[in-house]
Amino acid sequence: MRKGKILKTHRLFFTLMFLLILTTPGFSRSEELPRTTIVVTMGTGQIVSGADATNAREKAISDALISALETILAGMLPTESLSTNFKALNAILYQHKDGLIQEYKILAEDKSGKYYRVMLEATVLVTRFMQLLIESGIGGTQASMPGILFLVAEENLEDVAIQYWWGKGMKEAVTASEKAISESLQKKGFSVIDHVAMDAARPPGEEGLFYNATLDLPAVMEMAARYKADVVITGSAQVVRAANTMGGGLKSFTGKLSIKAYRAGTGTEIASAEKTAVLADKDDITGSKAVLSKVALMTAQDIGPMILSGWIKPDRKETDVTVNVYGTNELSHFVAFREALSKTQGVKGIQLKEMESGRTTLLVRYQGDANELANTLLLNSFENFGLNINLLAESTIKVEMVPAPQ
Asked: Of the chain's two ends, which shows fewer C-beta atoms within 10 Å, N or C?
């Protein structure tokens, strides 16, 4: 599988780096593991004397690891925040470097004249990095964090009907999935709106807002205004009893959670996640609650950094980006790429502009600019091919689909 794509960024010594692939741990205890991103980057160390190559190599490794963290940081915060907090961010990078790098592997190294250069693959603990920003006040204190309202409908094995608190006649309660994900986000510094307390404090006779389990965007925005939310998380949770059983009465339960986060007022989608979890239990009710809590915790690990990044960054204007795709003779590759493009956050529409042998031109309506779209596309990986991406002009991207190395 080809996971490497080229990403250019400014560095003091070296400017070439590749952002490989965003990965999320998929083991049974993944809710306790931080989300990671693998970055391939280069670093340089100066050789002061002829016998100083070992020290220069260590400096090159350190330089490359800092470069990896800088790459992730640039994707988390807008330029204004980076420049305003430059001194504090430098302190975080150098003081917490070892704690933010899960592991690294040297891919190549070279001694050239007075310099020692290395290329390495670093696994960065993204969630821990984001938490450090929150704790330092750069990501935002809890008082300045967005107020999050949960509108997540739940199908469990305890209740016959779908549970959702915003329906007429529905019980004003917090479901297992909402409770787990909200508590997890609160531990990370987020502010969660207590809709139960707000409704209880309303004057007697005040008419509420009632909707069905599935909400469209206008309804979501109306609920956001009523509960004074900054961000709304909407979606659905479901648990089913699987066919697998074991001796002693153990049964298998599968929990699924699919959610999206929207910025209130504008309706901009700033985060999304889909997770599945499985566990065994003897009892339907306790098993149902446990698997929903588990999948919610897994989801919180992913969606927390996305929400913070989307909240910190201002809403971006929609622009038309021309994407010239080469290598489209391999139809299956092009179909896979276009599907990934359509699911890319911020993409509002795709039009076929031109088609010829080996090349297809697409007009993409994107919430952001061409450079941001190019960087986002770098996070995609495909089984049988890779992407070489270049920014040709302010609103034009060249994407070359190349076969994966054998």
From this structure: C
CATH 3.30.70-classified regions of the chain:
318-403
What digits encode the pLDDT tens for the residues 173-227?
788 899 999 988 887 778 899 988 888 888 887 777 788 888 988 889 889 888 9
For the chain, what is the mean pLDDT? 81
Q: Name the pLDDT band for 406 (thresholds 50, 70, 90).
A: low
DSSP string covering 4-67: --EEE---SS--EEEEEEEE---STTGGGS--EEEEEEEEEEE--STT-HHHHHHHHHHHHHHH
Q: Which fold has domain 142-312?
A: Rossmann fold (3.40.50)
pTM score above 0.70 = no
**Gyration radius from the chain CA atoms:** 24
Handedness of CA 223, 227, 229, 232 (dihedral sign): negative
- Contact indicator for 361, 325 with CB cutoff of 8 Å: yes
Angle at 176 between CA 170 and CA 177, to 5 degrees: 100
Class of domain 6-136: alpha beta
Query: How far apart are the C-alpha atoms of 87 and 100, rounded to whole Å?
Result: 18
DSSP label of 2: -
Token pair for 239:
């648990």
Helix 126-136 crosses helix 53-76 at what angle (to 10 degrees)?
70
- pLDDT of the residue at 401: 92
Pairing outcome for strands 396-403 and 385-393: antiparallel
Residue 76 sits at the vertex; the CA angle it makes with 71 and 82, to the nearest 5 degrees, is 80
Q: What is the DSSP letter of 163?
A: B
Predicted confidence at residue 312, as pLDDT, reads: 66
Q: What is the CATH number of domain 318-403?
A: 3.30.70
Q: What is the enclosing helix (H) or strand (E) of 263?
A: strand 251-263
Query: Could you give the residue range(s) of every CATH 3.40.50.10610 domain in the chain?
Result: 142-312
